[in-house]
Specification:
Blueprint lengths: L1 E9 L5 H9 L2 E8 L2 E9 H11 L4 E7 L6 E11 L6 E8 L6 E10 L3 H4 L4 E3 L3 E6 L8 E4 L10 E2 L10 E2 L6 E5 L1
Parallel strand pairs: 1-4, 2-6, 7-10
Antiparallel strand pairs: 1-3, 2-3, 4-5, 5-6, 7-9, 8-13, 9-12, 11-13
Length: 185
């Protein structure tokens, strides 16, 4: 899984007016939630935060969050929610969820089909039924993407199933192994 480092400071102002003033100074407010403990109010430099969020967009990523003056040191978080302005798309607020890197969790991972199937070269049509797979494991053990070579697929063959996907040994698949992901007709 992808890891990204990001820095922030604790936010001391609250309310509609002060939040607008923060955003005018190119600072984005955020909250850090961590299971049962009171949330921590944070603020980020908008440009750096936007660049980091753009880099991880659509990917499973663990953010290593360094909070200025925090006694806990580095915290590992996932992006829970991003709020954007409806008209111009600027960042309004971000929510983060603190996770334990040693505790397994469920993630949705994209499947990337590589190559051109033999059946397609002979006039068949490639049918993609599934483009993601749900996996359970420790966050850093989860792959960014699962690449599958489809060149041996022939027309009329059974196709590739979830059971055929190359999943790391320490990761559990949460899908039914017999479900067809891709086939050539």
């Amino acid at each position: 899984m992808l890891q990204v480092n990001i820095e922030s400071t604790v936010r001391t102002v609250f309310g509609k007016g002060p939040m607008r003033q923060l955003r005018m100074r190119d600072v984005t407010p955020a909250n850090l939630y961590s299971g049962g403990v009171a949330s921590v109010s944070l603020q980020f430099e908008t440009a750096k935060l936007y660049k980091s969020l753009l880099f991880i967009h659509g990917r499973n990523a663990v953010l290593s969050l360094k909070i200025e003056g925090d006694s806990k040191g580095e915290r590992h978080v996932l992006v829970q929610e991003i709020q954007k302005a409806p008209i111009n798309g600027s960042l309004l607020h971000v929510d983060f969820l603190e996770i334990d890197l040693a505790k397994p969790a469920a993630f949705t991972v994209p499947i990337e089909y590589v190559g051109t199937a033999k059946g397609v070269d002979l006039g068949g049509e490639l049918q993609v039924f599934k483009d993601t797979v749900r996996l359970r494991g420790c966050p850093l053990d989860i792959p960014d993407v699962i690449k599958v070579d489809i060149t041996p697929l022939e027309q009329g063959q059974a196709g590739l199933t979830y059971g055929d996907l190359p999943v790391p040994a320490n990761v559990e698949m949460l899908e039914k192994a017999a479900t067809t992901c891709v086939a050539v007709y």
